[in-house]
Amino acid sequence: MGFSIPHLLTVLAIIILVFGTRRLKTVGSDLGEAIKGFRNAVREGEENPSLVRPDGETLEDGIDDRQKYKV
């Protein structure tokens, strides 16, 4: 029991009636910008070696847990 094309089109029509096309466009562009920002943050984390320990664990603001909690 899966979704067929008529089911998906019906759901899409209801969503367009409720939100309108202008609102859906705004939501889509906001989602795209959020994904782009996440990818850039991941890329920056990979490029900045001061935030990654040799064992691969990520550090928070360049401070590891021992320094943070003075263990």
Describe the protein.
The chain starts with a helix and ends with a helix. It has one domain. Helix content is 66%, strand content 0%. The model has no long low-confidence stretch (mean pLDDT 77). The chain is built from three helices and no strands. It has 71 residues and is mainly alpha-helical. It has helices at residues 5-19, 21-47, 65-69.
How many runs of DSSP E, i.e. beta strands?
0
What is the 3D form?
Answer: elongated
SSE order = HHH
Count every helix, treating DSSP H or I runs of 4 or more residues as helices.
3
How large is the radius of gyration? 22 Å
How much helix is in the residues?
Answer: 55-70%
Number of structurally distinct domains: 1
Task: Compute the separation of the termini in Å.
Answer: 55 Å
The chain-level mean pLDDT equals 77
The percentage of residues in β strands lies in under 5%
The largest sheet, given as strand count, sense and whether it forms a barrel, is: none
**Backbone structural class:** mainly alpha
Sequence stretches where pLDDT stays below 50 over 5 or more residues: none
Label this structure with key terms.
mainly alpha, 0% strand, 71 residues
Q: Layout of helices and strands, plus pairs?
A:
Elements: H1 5-19, H2 21-47, H3 65-69
Summarize this entry quickly:
The chain has 71 residues and is mainly alpha-helical. The chain has three helices and no strands. Helices cover 66% and strands 0% of the residues.
